């Protein structure tokens, strides 16, 4: 099809020089695809290089402590990706003797691998004609064919997957998949796409109908909930602090944080100090408390906005076993905590 040939030709001229494009080793391709899920290349590239350096093989990653994996992942967000990455590495290393599944269907059995990632690995590593569909692909196809079906609907997912599968060049599936993703990332961008230099500007329906800014269509998600976090940053005279490991099934599972007090709304300093007088860590402890940031730091996640304050608790001795402030950077923490640690400069 002319579309596929034009796209692949464009890619041969304009593709970026990226390390995972210099190999078809499934371990490296899998690693890059997991890192680049919901992450731009410029942000993901240093993480990819760090992982390859520290864990050059799937066995190295499988044998690592989860805390080391989470620490290396720190700042990328969506930490379930890192936990799934580690779990799948163990499965491949221990159950499959280090050999990755070599087809789309079996790749889907890996934890954290969905349709897009399985398609990418299958096509790039094993030349299987499995079409990828990600945000870039949705944008390119919805604009070129003027498709108004919401991309975050079940109907849209099926429609775009079917269309991409019809368009893929069965003889060059790896090039086609990488081409359409690259085209969406650098040419058919979300805002201010380069339509004047686009090889499809004479056949793109959205451009012809002046609908570039309207596509793709996405159903608006529910309004993000507000949450109010108050972290208690203990500092003892012997320069120790308290870090707690988060439990349960949350986005920060197994990451470390300062003791957290969550409130229903933002409290004044006086109201908060009165509230925490009965806190388990404070009720039998002599301390002085001060507010580090007068204005709440707003940390935006996909489903919630965290309004955060850090309260400095100076005390002679910690009420529980602590960690040296000199070693605090060795722990895997959410980026919200990491940014505070750097700004406070323990």
UniProtKB/TrEMBL annotation:
Keyword terms of this UniProt record: 4Fe-4S, DNA damage, DNA repair, Glycosidase, Hydrolase, Iron, Iron-sulfur, Metal-binding
Is Iron one of the keywords UniProt gives this record? yes
Q: Which reaction does it catalyse?
A: Hydrolyzes free adenine bases from 7,8-dihydro-8-oxoguanine:adenine mismatched double-stranded DNA, leaving an apurinic site
> What Enzyme Commission number(s) appear in the record?
3.2.2.31
Hydrolase among keywords = yes
| Cofactor(s) this protein requires | [4Fe-4S] cluster
A biological-process GO annotation:
mismatch repair
Lineage: superkingdom: Bacteria
Name the record gives this protein: Adenine DNA glycosylase
């Amino acid at each position: 099809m002319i579309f596929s040939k034009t796209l692949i030709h464009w890619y041969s001229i304009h593709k970026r020089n990226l390390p995972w494009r210099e190999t078809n080793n499934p371990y490296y391709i899998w690693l890059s695809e997991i890192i680049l899920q919901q992450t731009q290349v410029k942000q993901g590239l240093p993480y990819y290089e760090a992982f390859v350096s520290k864990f050059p093989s799937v066995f190295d990653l499988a044998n690592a402590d989860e805390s080391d994996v989470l620490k290396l992942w720190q700042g990328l967000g969506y930490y379930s990706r890192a936990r799934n990455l580690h779990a799948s590495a163990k499965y491949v290393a221990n159950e499959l003797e280090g050999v990755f599944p070599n087809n789309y269907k079996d790749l889907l059995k890996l934890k954290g691998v969905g349709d897009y990632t399985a398609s990418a690995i299958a096509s790039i590593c094993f030349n299987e004609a499995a079409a990828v569909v990600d945000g870039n692909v949705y944008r390119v196809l919805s604009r070129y064919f003027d498709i108004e079906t919401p991309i975050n609907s079940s109907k849209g997912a099926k429609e775009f997957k079917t269309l991409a599968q019809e368009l893929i060049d069965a003889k060059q599936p790896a090039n086609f998949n990488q081409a359409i993703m690259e085209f969406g990332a650098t040419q058919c961008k979300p805002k201010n796409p380069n339509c004047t230099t686009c090889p499809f500007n004479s056949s793109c329906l959205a451009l012809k109908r002046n609908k570039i800014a309207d596509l793709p269509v996405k159903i608006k998600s529910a309004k993000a909930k507000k949450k109010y976090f108050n972290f208690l940053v203990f500092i003892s005279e012997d320069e120790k602090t308290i870090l707690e490991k988060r439990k349960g099934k949350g986005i920060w599972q197994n990451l470390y944080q300062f003791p957290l007090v969550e409130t229903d709304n933002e409290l004044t300093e006086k109201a908060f100090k009165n509230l925490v007088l009965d806190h388990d860590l404070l009720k039998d402890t002599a301390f002085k408390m001060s507010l580090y940031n007068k204005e709440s730091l707003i940390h935006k996640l996909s489903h919630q906005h965290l309004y955060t304050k850090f309260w400095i608790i100076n005390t002679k001795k910690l009420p529980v076993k602590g960690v040296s402030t000199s070693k605090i950077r060795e722990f895997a923490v959410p980026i919200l905590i990491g940014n505070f640690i750097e700004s406070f400069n323990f």
